[in-house]
Amino acid sequence: MQPKPARRQKSALTIHDVARYAGVSPMTVSRVINGEKNVRESTREAVNAAIRALNYQPNPAARSLAGADLVRIGLLYSNPSAAYLSEFLVGGLDQVSRSNIQLVVEKCDEEAAEAAAARLLNSGVDGIILPPPLCDSPAVLKMLAASHTPAVAVATGRPPADVSAVRIDDFEAARQMTRHLAGLEGRRLGRGQGFGVGPVERIGQRPVQAHEPHAPRAVEVQQPVHHPRIEGAQVQQEDERDLAPLGLQRQGPRAIEALGGGRQETGFQPGDRGGVAAGGAARVGIVVGPVAEIEGDAGDPVAPGLQERPGAGADLRGLALGQERVAEPAPRAALGQRGQQRLVAHDVGLEGGGRGRGEAQVAPGVVAERAARLAPEPEGEARVGLGLQEAAVDEAGGRRLGPLQGPQDVAGDAGAGLPGRQGAVRGQVVKGQRDLHRPRRLRQQRGGQGERRRPHRSNSDSGTASAIAL
DNA sequence: CTTAGCGGAGACCATCGGGG
DNA sequence: CCCCGATGGTCTCCGCTAAG
């Protein structure tokens, strides 16, 4: 008979060992591990060196025990696309592993979405991610609202007021990209070929959902090139020859119009000389407009300073040139070089640029990461934009990152509204069923009196706003 | 006085083992 | 059999010290 394992492996490294090695208290080690700010840099380095030297790994069980805050997020999906789900899961798992979050996946048919949502709620999840098409399911959204469970609608066209959302801000993207391109007048950009035309036609009426199987992939334009409502983006006759290979000569104005129904809403100003149409919740970026100067050379710097930023140049090339290949998915490669949180917009970037279609497709995995990060929040919105936006804003000397917003931007203190720790609740946990129960902090009455509010941690699962809203 | 940086005390909870 | 203390690693809260 096997002897029972000791409760504690005496040889296991603990935070105390690291503390002794580094010459600090366990508390300080904990602060360093959790990325808290109030640690002197020299102390932080000493602790990190000790962690490396001892190859210390925090004990997740002990963490859960101490914090009692294991966050569980439900992912309710009915999307039949295995590829989409696969990418979505990878991104989501990346984020939850970084944030010590447990991901619970629940599949359902659209007809059975309510029952599936109820199962998730009963299992005690802290928040639910709703990829399309369930993100727009009124019944599910209503159920989540009634249970006061935070939810994140992914790629929704019309995020409800009381539900967090991760979506692409097509309009702001188009606005900023257009302005940026307009500022490149006279520069050699490159010739695009085989641009795919996203489902732009219907944008003026309502946002087109990426999952809509019948969303138009090409626009059949019947409008004249010179549209009276968008004179700032008129395409000159001579430009049309160059536009011809793009197949966009007549679609540009139309697309621009579709973006907002007119110049005022799209943000185009008199004198703007280009346009970018953005279509669909997961598809952005079609270059239109007077591209007579465009001539292809992938190696050309497309804008001053852009190549100095990792990925930024590739972003623009991938978008503006529609090349057959982009050397590497630079936006993701840049992740971490400039701080994980701040690179969200950059990270999303134009991963699809390598498809040679001149369109940017935001990877579902990246969106899922955003959603997983946002899910436990009571409300908030992360608008996922383009890497180009960051570059453009930076280049203009702006200090804002663009339209991207972190949860705290819109939700205030992300910890507010979340129940904190209270006294013990011994006796409420059924043996063998513990993992089906809510974390302790959520077992407390939401918004109850006298609860200890758990300060928002400053490690990887938070701090977004402070990093972004400069 | 304020703030940064840090440490101590005690809580967290499932499980085990010893004593009554 | 029941009760209760000990155990495990990490956390939050609170308070202290030093520096500005």
UniProtKB/TrEMBL annotation:
Residues 460-470 have a biased composition (Polar residues). Keywords: DNA-binding, Transcription, Transcription regulation. SUPFAM superfamilies: lambda repressor-like DNA-binding domains, Periplasmic binding protein-like I. Residues 13-67 form the HTH lacI-type domain. Coiled coil: none annotated. Residues 398-470 are annotated as: Disordered. It comes from the Bacteria. This is Transcriptional regulator, LacI family. It comes from Phenylobacterium zucineum (strain HLK1).
